[in-house]
Amino acid sequence: MREVYFIKQNKEKWLGIEQVIQGKVKKNPDDLSSLYINLINDLSFAQSYYPKSNTTVYLNHLSSQMFQKIYKTKRVEENRLMYFFKTEVPLLVYQYRRYLLYAFLFFILFTAIGVLSGAYDKDFANIILGEEYVNETIENIKKGNAVGVYQSGSTWGSTIGIIFNNIRVGARLYIYGVTGGVGTLYALLSNSVMLGSFQYFFYDYGALKDSARGIWLHGVFEIFAMVVEAMCGLILGASILFPRTFSRFNSFKTGFKDSFKIFLSTIPFTICAGIIEGYVTRHALKMPLVVNLALIITSLAIIGFYYFVYPSVVYKRINTNTNDAVL
């Protein structure tokens, strides 16, 4: 079948499904499941015969939206907060997973720029990190205490200040998405270049190992959350730039609602990062190396599993249950 005829044959049905997704037309759960299965059949056909077509991209997006609609119509028996973190956020992360990939690729690129800049310009760290901070850190390194900067101030006072600062940085990464994602990328560039030059600075002074033992205790949660927040900004920007068949306003509403939920999921990790930085990082060089590494690896396993692995697990489980219910 020619693609033009395929579109003409199914256009009205797809537009009707858009109306259902937007809440303009009400359907009972059985009708929603029937529409979803029908849509999946169209998607499978398009993937087989028009794999690189915009029609396939459109149907894939529509299927994801429809899937969300179906599951939200089910009665949620568990605690609402538990449902939010166990099911709702993972499904959204799965739906927008390519934006998480984009955010990580930009993060790696921008961090590499920071490393190379520090390597080729010895004054770059002073410009990015501030001369006072650099001089203080050099003195700490000479004393054999690379993480000395984290030992100043009270534990609870430092923790509160760090948490609020990190939430502010994450909010900027997200909200700047209203510029079509350009502001988000700029904010990610600034933070990633700073991280890259920061790490190279310690490498240049022969203290990379000691600094990593301290920095990445809290940095795993903090930096990973920062990348997810950039993902949210990119989702927001894409909803404005690429509304597909939706009106730009309706596309923005959907993008904002979905991205904001993902953004909220980073807050617990940001709070944990602040607590670790305020109470644990200052003791990094005093604890056994094996304990230090165990904490870093455990943190990475937790947040990596939640955003990279668990969404697929939830999607496959829910999708299987939905299809079984229809059959």
Automatic annotation (TrEMBL):
Pfam families: SpoIIM
ATP-binding keyword on record: no
UniProt xrefs under InterPro entries: SpoIIM-like (IPR002798)
Keyword annotations: Membrane, Transmembrane, Transmembrane helix
Residue intervals passing through the bilayer: 99-120, 173-203, 215-242, 262-280, 289-309
Keyword set includes Repeat: no
Name under which the protein is recorded: Uncharacterized membrane protein SpoIIM, required for sporulation
